[in-house]
Write a structure and sequence with these properties.
Strand content of chain A: 35-45%
Largest sheet of chain A: 6 strands, antiparallel
Strand order of the largest sheet of chain B: 4-3-5-6-7-8-9-14-13
Number of domains of chain A: 2
Number of helices of chain B: 12
Mean pLDDT of chain A: 90
Order of helices and strands of chain A: EHEEHEHEEHH
Mean pLDDT of chain B: 91
CATH class of the largest domain in chain A: Alpha Beta
Largest sheet of chain B: 9 strands, mixed
Helix content of chain A: 25-40%
Oligomer: heterodimer
CATH topology of the largest domain in chain B: Rossmann fold
Strand content of chain B: 15-25%
CATH topology of the largest domain in chain A: Alpha-Beta Plaits
Shape of chain B: globular
CATH superfamily of the largest domain in chain B: ANL, N-terminal domain
Distance between the termini of chain B: 46 Å
Helix content of chain B: 25-40%
Number of strands of chain A: 6
CATH architecture of the largest domain in chain A: 2-Layer Sandwich
Number of helices of chain A: 5
Radius of gyration of chain B: 23 Å
Distance between the termini of chain A: 18 Å
CATH class of the largest domain in chain B: Alpha Beta
Strand order of the largest sheet of chain A: 2-3-1-4-6-5
Number of strands of chain B: 21
Amino acid sequence: MAYEVSIFLENKIGHFERITQILKKNEINIRTMSINDTSNGWGILNLLVNNPQKAYKALEAEGVSVALKEIIALEMKDESGGLHDLLLKVAQAKVNFNNANGRIIQETKSAILILDVPDIADSQKKLMENGLQILDDEKIYGN
Amino acid sequence: MMKEYWQEELEVSSRSSLEKLQIERLNKTIEYAIQSPYYNKLFNKKGISPGSIKNIAQIQDLPFTTKQDLRNNFPYGFLTLPKKEIIRLHSSSGTTGNPTVIFHNRHDINSWANLMARSLFCAGVRDTDVFQNISGYGLFTGGLGFQYGIEALGCLSIPAGAGNSKRQIKLMQDYGTTVAHAIPSYLGRLYEVFEQENLDPKKNTQLHTLVIGAEPHTEEQRQRIEAMFGVKAYNSFGLSEMNGPGVAFECTYQSGLHIWEDAFYVEIIDPETLQPVPDGEYGELVMTTLDREAMPLIRYRTRDITRIIPGKCKCGRVHRRIDRITGRTDDMFIIKGCNVFPMQIEGVLLKIPEVGSDYLITLETVNDVDEMVVEVEVKPNWFSGDIRKLDQLTKQITTQIRDEVLAKPIVKLVEKGSIPRAEGKAVRVADKRNNGLK
């Protein structure tokens, strides 16, 4: 099972920086990040890191509102149309997602799409039935 | 000759005849009070009996009554008459602790309506006026309290209720409203809606008078309202323990609020020493009902801070004037016309497992409207990374606070540790409203 680190963050100067400082001190490497801003003065920061459990523990120890959120990662080709081809299959599998981000993997000239879906087990089943390969943790977190 | 006063014999009599009436009514009040379980026990213990008051200064020998006394003896401990005689109750909001409830018999309702009519008459309202009462009807006293007064005075009354600005404007236009009553912060919003509708209240309505109250406001706010609507705006003061509106009212000279001393005995005390302060000095307003039968209150500590304005008013009334309320001796605050204790908000938050016990209430003025911002810390172990759950939580807290205090807050979720931890007594309310009242 792969995880993203989700953090409740007020939209105030220095708050994001406090998070990155904790991660730096604990030698956590960030692979991708996204922020969901809201109109209520706060947002949610989603981080894909090399060691989610370690990051979670470090942030939790500092009193940060943090959660490990299970995600699904799929591989695509790092070329024009790569994302489209993948999303077409995701749509055919009838899987909807709330949040997504992606990253490139240099060596294999491929890319991965990370999905935050409401029902992990059901989505995984549907994606696999439609011939999509769910990536393992090492590939997601690794270099 | 045109009538100048609603009750000339009571309004422009001499201080000595007013005092004589006060002594007479205070003795009668004690006579009623002693019929209630609460005062019966207290007076017997202290040897107070009806007819014992010979001069009005002797009132200082009587014990104070507090809001806590009312709560402790909820609901019927202060009632002097059998329930058969009671025709109405008004009560404070809230689900935490006992509410403050006041009972009225027919005499009390009529007396209140008369004081309300006198108040409006003194602000220049006449029976030829069309009066729109933009105030919540129900347990809140601003609705029915005004309604009965407007009717006693003889105006055409429009019991419009609170909110729905477009409808308020339509009512004003359809029926040619000349006087309206609302809380001051609402009038700013109403004016905005006038502007949105491309209407100018100065040209498109027949308003000449606004009555504003139930919420602290400054002279500057009054002047802004007067300029926006092109009217005279008069300050109204009341509290539900003393019926509601109609306790003190500005006359057309707008230089302080005449407090109806034939119906209420007024003292200003130092809240620390509990001794009276001289006229002109600020202190806590203490009031005794002089014309209430079902539920008289003796030396009730209102917690409102004001002063007696020394000297006579040009209008000729002998009833002394109190100044605007400048603050409270407890932590209650008034927002959107609702009395709120921080403890009520705390009570709501404590029942919601997702939030911590640290919160901060900030009162601020946004576009002329006073808002109550409640910042709440989210418990880290509850956080799941789901934005929907946080939105839901915000809505849940907003609804529950509104249900408790009747005023809708702006709820902001904040990170744990965001709210400064106070040493000793925590500061729960920051008042940043630009009404100059702290």
